[in-house]
């Protein structure tokens, strides 16, 4: 799957979410949702490292699934923010991470 196709699917998914819950999907919503997801990622990593209340501890396999799900949420929201701000994220990643020296 090409990055642009992935981005479109992520955006469509969030648009459906917004319609279902009567939420306007705009830059403010996406930014605050990203903050929420980063918090959930932090919580999942703390749980993975057993730095949370013991009642939250799960198997290593389940912990890895939780971290993966939260990473997906964070990445999804970053992609949506780029779309809402009309930023070519694939190009930005290329310039910042891949071909930074050029």
Q: What structural class do you assign from the helix and strand content? A: mainly alpha
Characterize the main sheet.
none
Cα gyration radius (Å): 16 Å
Query: How many helices does DSSP assign?
Result: 4
Give the count of structural domains. Answer: 1
* Mean pLDDT across all amino acids: 95
Order of helices and strands: HHHH
CATH architecture: Orthogonal Bundle
> What's the total count of β strands?
0
Helical content, roughly? Answer: over 70%
CATH class: Mainly Alpha
Strand proportion, as a percent range, falls in under 5%
The unreliable regions are none
The CATH homology group name = MazG-like
Report a brief summary of the structure.
This protein has 102 residues and is mostly helical. The chain has helices at 3-21, 27-48, 60-84, 89-98.
Key terms:
0% strand, 4 helices, 102 residues, mainly alpha
Overview of this protein structure:
It is a single chain. The chain has 102 residues and is an all-alpha fold. α1 crosses α3. The chain starts with a helix and ends with a helix. It is built from 4 helices and no strands. It is globular, with a radius of gyration of 16 Å. The mean pLDDT is 95. It has one domain: Helix Hairpins, CATH 1.10.287. The chain is 75% helix and 0% strand.
